[in-house]
């Protein structure tokens, strides 16, 4: 019978250190790390120790907790521990539903004589989602002339935001496109084996860094017509979900639409939203 | 809201209204609504109201105990059933005897419910009664076995080990042992791995027990079962699939490789997949490399990490230009151990990566390389790069390897008018500790940018000579808030002269400064500081942890009483720190002190609930009881 594996020459995260990080991550980001994820967390953090020249995870924890220069490191930590893999047109059913909704939104706004459209992509990672929305919007042709369209992407990871702003992607980001590359030719410029998003789309999205459990991350983002907040709530504890739900509620216009991940649910977590089934997708509207 | 309105709302169709109504009940005396709830439980017509009543009982918990116990005697068997169920959700020892009484209820469903409730409560007093129940009705027998599994403990496990020999009860015993079993149960379960009907149940139980105990079987334990385990990966039952996967990951068998690779990005199985591939070692490497070459493969970063752990830097070189930044980081870090010209050349390219994380990783590794190839490799960077960050890292590498000219050039860059360049140069100087840079760094202390001043002070302190310390102490004495957290890092053992100032700083409301001051005070190791440190004890767990660690650093016997107080603290981190502090201090004391302290530790141990802290305290107790015997 052996004790669980350890690996020599690699800095090992003890049970106590694992617990310290779990609590820190839970406290700062509302993200729950499960019991059986110690090795994964160790693997994700070990390179930070080497780069910063910190000898142990305990010292790294103390650094994050007490060093005044550690604020950025803490935000980068969130990016490292979540699975921020994303790609263009992920969960296409929802993107298609969004495309259909645009007609309804336009109709409603024209009745109210409004000409702005605001879309928010929360936990946008390296930008594939907000850019997918922008492309969808462009393809619809509904908001081209005389409309003030603003799409914003928010993510906690500074590096992800940088990548989003650079808007350069590889094949990896197109794995949901099913081999049809017409839209790649239309919206991207090929640079070797990479693809740079054309300016018209790249400049249509603004990005900002922010922790979505904190209301200040949403300053200036009220009256959003559509919010996408997908595949991030699954990592969060109940209290964090309530905080995020409250922040999204405050951002969404009264007639707005909220998309969350198709495997996620807000039912019995908050009474701020009601789910409706529309265009083959579950979409949330503000309650009351 | 009035009580009548609340009671009416209990049968509202809206779940949120019912939830608020139940919460509203808590503000009233139980006599005002318990009769209503009892009647609601008897109401066969209105299921919504009856369910709401049950929800209300759940929320009320112990407040409703007497009502529920009263209902156990109701003529209506459904009411007795509901109240039995509900009692199983209230953790109170007094309920056990009531539920044991219900094991003799006339209604079978009530008896089953009583068994289940006893299982949920987990009090070992119920074990005898449950064991007797096994000889009765078969439904009761099975429910009792399950309840024994819920209760656990040595007595329950012993009973289950005994019952597993009975064929008609075997499967249920295995399921119960999955929950309650210990390492001794493995021998009881192993024979059933060869039984096609019981294989899946025993596998799950064996895997669960190993996980719970933090152990793994040897690689040969499941070796013969590999084909069955692979088959079980297709099972409809997710729990069987999971157990099969975990067992497969333990086999170190190459047939497992494709399945481990498939699971590398599965959040639920990732740790096992990683462990499995790493344990397998070299035989897994070709498959990992092949998977890594697939740009569409999910979890490539983890695969790169595994290759790094397996010390395959040569294999990683091929991915030095990978599209994924984190893969390049792994390549850069792993090349530190490959001391070859090729590695240095690759690292010099990675040093000039667009990503700072990749550059910094390359920098770390270049410092580990031998001097032989460094100068040659850094030349092109210095000559051709127009990126100041890359130039600074190249200079830093050269200085680390003893190049004096490079130090001068780096110090010059710290004079730059560009804030970013200046800051990067100062950070580099701080990392490699160039004493000749002290003059320039002192000039930077007057820079208008706060970030420059802070980095300059940090670099000065890293240099660690007398002048550097005097400068840092100037900031401590002036109590300049911005610079204090950095300046305090300069305090070392023997700096007793700064103590009076530290005592003043300890009283600050600024938490970060306070923590740094506590740390600094501890480093001085002067026992006179004990009183000042302990006077800062508060409700803040972080502060208390730091105080304990400072006392540990001081290491005097006089610290022990306070550390023992820490051992009784609410926060688990404080208790953990206190355990470790005691471990440190007791190394150097006499037998009498050890005996007195271990006796206090025993008392604390008896009340400790946290398993992590408990393990640590037990370890220390065992160590020093043995030590005391030797003395």
What features would you describe in this structure?
The complex is a heterodimer of chains A (288) and B (631). With 288 residues, chain A is an alpha/beta fold. In chain A, 41% of the residues lie in helices and 20% in strands. In chain A, α10 (238-251) links the parallel β8 and β9. Mean pLDDT of chain A is 89; it is low at 2-8. In chain B, 68% of the residues lie in helices and 0% in strands. The chains are: A alpha/beta (288), B mainly alpha (631). Chain A binds chain B through residues 1-5, 7, 9-10, 15-16, 19-20, 36-40, 43, 46-47, 50-51, 53, 65-69, 83, 85, 159, 170-172, 175, 193-194, 268, 271, and chain B through 15-16, 183, 211, 214-218, 265, 267-268, 270-272, 274-275, 278-279, 295-296, 298, 302, 305, 309, 311, 323-325, 329-330, 333, 355, 357, 360-361, 364, 431, 454, 485, 512, 515-516, 542, 573, 576, 612.
Secondary-structure blueprint:
The complex is a heterodimer of chains A (288) and B (631).
Chain A: E1 2-3, H1 15-29, H2 38-52, H3 57-66, H4 71-81, H5 92-111, E2 116-122, H6 128-140, E3 148-155, H7 158-166, E4 168-169, H8 182-187, E5 188-191, E6 194-197, H9 199-202, E7 205-209, E8 224-229, H10 238-251, E9 252-260, E10 273-278, E11 281-286
Parallel strand pairs in A: 2-3, 2-8, 3-7, 8-9
Antiparallel strand pairs in A: 4-6, 5-6, 10-11
Helix pairs in contact in A: 1-3, 5-6
Chain B: H1 3-9, H2 15-25, H3 34-42, H4 47-60, H5 65-71, H6 77-87, H7 95-102, H8 108-121, H9 127-133, H10 138-151, H11 153-163, H12 170-180, H13 185-189, H14 199-213, E1 215-216, H15 226-232, H16 238-250, H17 257-262, H18 270-280, H19 285-293, H20 300-309, H21 313-317, H22 325-334, H23 341-351, H24 356-368, H25 374-384, H26 388-400, H27 404-413, H28 419-432, H29 438-444, H30 450-463, H31 466-478, H32 484-487, H33 499-506, H34 511-524, H35 529-534, H36 541-554, H37 560-567, H38 572-585, H39 591-607, H40 611-630
């Amino acid at each position: 019978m052996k004790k669980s594996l350890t690996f020599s020459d690699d800095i090992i995260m003890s049970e106590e250190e694992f617990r310290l990080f779990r609590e820190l991550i839970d406290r700062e980001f509302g993200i729950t790390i499960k019991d059986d994820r110690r090795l994964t967390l160790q693997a994700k953090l070990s390179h930070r120790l080497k780069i910063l020249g910190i000898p142990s995870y305990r010292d790294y924890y103390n650094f994050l907790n007490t060093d005044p220069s550690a604020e950025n490191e803490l935000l980068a930590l969130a990016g490292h521990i979540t699975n921020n893999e994303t790609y263009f047109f992920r969960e296409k059913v929802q993107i298609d539903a969004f495309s259909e909704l645009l007609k309804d939104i336009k109709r409603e706004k024209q009745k109210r004589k409004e000409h702005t459209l605001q879309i928010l992509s929360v936990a946008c990672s390296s930008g594939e989602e907000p850019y997918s929305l922008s492309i969808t919007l462009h393809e619809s042709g509904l908001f081209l002339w005389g409309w003030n369209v603003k799409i914003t992407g928010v993510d906690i990871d500074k590096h992800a935001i940088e990548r989003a702003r650079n808007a350069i992607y590889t094949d990896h980001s197109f794995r949901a496109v099913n081999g049809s590359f017409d839209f790649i030719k239309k919206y991207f410029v090929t640079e070797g084996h990479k693809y740079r998003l054309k300016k018209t789309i790249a400049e249509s999205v603004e990005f900002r860094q922010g922790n979505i459990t904190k209301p200040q991350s949403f300053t200036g983002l009220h009256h959003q017509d559509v919010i996408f907040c997908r595949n991030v709530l699954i990592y969060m504890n109940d209290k964090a979900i309530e905080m995020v739900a409250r922040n999204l509620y405050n951002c969404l216009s009264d007639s707005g639409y909220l998309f969350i991940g198709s495997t996620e649910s807000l039912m019995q977590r908050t009474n701020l939203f009601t789910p409706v089934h529309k265009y083959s997708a579950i979409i949330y509207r503000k309650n009351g | 809201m009035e009580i009548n309105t609340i009671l009416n709302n209990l049968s509202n169709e809206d779940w949120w209204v019912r939830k608020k109504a139940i919460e509203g009940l808590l503000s009233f005396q139980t006599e005002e609504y318990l009769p209503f709830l009892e009647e609601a439980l008897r109401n066969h017509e209105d299921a919504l109201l009856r369910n709401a009543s049950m929800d209300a009982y759940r929320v009320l918990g112990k407040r409703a105990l007497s009502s529920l116990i009263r209902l156990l005697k109701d003529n209506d068997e459904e009411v007795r059933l509901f109240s039995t169920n509900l009692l199983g959700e209230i953790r109170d020892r007094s309920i056990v005897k009531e539920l044991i009484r219900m094991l003799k209820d006339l209604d079978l469903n009530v008896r089953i419910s009583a068994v289940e409730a006893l299982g949920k409560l987990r009090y070992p007093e119920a074990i005898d009664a449950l064991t007797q129940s096994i000889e009765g009705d078969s439904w009761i027998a099975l429910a009792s076995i399950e309840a024994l599994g819920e209760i656990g403990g040595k007595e329950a496990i012993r009973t289950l080990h005994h019952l597993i020999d009975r064929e008609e009860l075997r499967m249920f015993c295995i399921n119960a042992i999955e929950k309650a079993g210990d390492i001794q149960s493995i021998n009881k379960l192993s024979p059933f791995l060869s039984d096609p009907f019981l294989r899946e149940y025993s596998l799950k139980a064996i895997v669960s027990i190993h996980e719970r105990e933090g152990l793994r079987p040897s690689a040969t334990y499941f070796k013969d079962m590999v084909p069955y385990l692979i088959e079980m990966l297709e099972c409809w039952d997710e729990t069987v699939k999971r157990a099969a996967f975990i067992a497969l990951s333990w086999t170190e068998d190459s047939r497992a490789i494709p399945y481990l690779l498939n699971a590398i990005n599965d959040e639920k199985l990732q740790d096992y997949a990683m462990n499995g591939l790493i344990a397998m070692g070299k035989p897994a490497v070709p498959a990992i490399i092949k998977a890594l070459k697939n740009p569409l493969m999910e979890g490539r970063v983890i695969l790169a990490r595994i290759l790094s752990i397996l010390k395959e830097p040569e294999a990683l070189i091929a991915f030095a230009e990978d599209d994924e930044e984190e893969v390049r980081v792994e390549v850069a870090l792993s090349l530190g151990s490959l001391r070859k010209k090729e590695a240095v050349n690759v690292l010099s390219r990675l040093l000039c990566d667009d990503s700072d994380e990749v550059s910094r990783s390359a920098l770390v590794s270049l410092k580990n390389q031998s001097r032989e190839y460094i100068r040659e490799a850094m030349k092109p960077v210095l000559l051709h790069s127009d990126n100041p960050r890359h130039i600074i890292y190249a200079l830093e590498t050269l200085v680390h390897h003893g190049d004096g000219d490079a130090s001068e050039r780096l110090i010059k860059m710290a004079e730059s008018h560009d804030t970013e360049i200046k800051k990067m140069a100062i950070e580099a100087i701080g990392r490699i500790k160039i004493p000749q840079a002290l003059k320039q760094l002192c000039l930077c202390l007057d820079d208008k940018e706060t970030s420059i001043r802070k980095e300059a002070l940090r670099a000065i302190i890293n240099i660690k000579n007398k002048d550097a310390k005097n400068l840092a102490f100037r900031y401590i004495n002036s109590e300049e808030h911005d610079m204090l957290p950095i300046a305090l890092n300069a305090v070392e053992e023997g700096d007793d002269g700064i103590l009076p100032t530290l005592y003043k700083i300890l009283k600050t409301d600024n938490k970060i400064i306070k923590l740094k001051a506590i740390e600094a005070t501890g480093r001085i190791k002067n026992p006179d500081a004990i009183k000042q440190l302990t006077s800062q004890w508060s409700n803040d767990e972080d502060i208390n942890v730091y105080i304990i660690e400072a006392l540990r650093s001081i290491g005097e016997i006089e610290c022990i009483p306070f550390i023992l107080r820490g051992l009784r603290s609410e926060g688990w981190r404080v208790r953990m720190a206190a355990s470790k502090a005691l471990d440190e201090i007791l190394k150097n004391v006499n037998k009498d002190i050890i005996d007195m302290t271990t006796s206090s530790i025993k008392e604390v141990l008896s009340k400790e609930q946290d398993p992590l802290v408990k393990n640590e305290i037990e370890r220390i107790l065992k160590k020093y009881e043995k030590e005391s015997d030797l003395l």
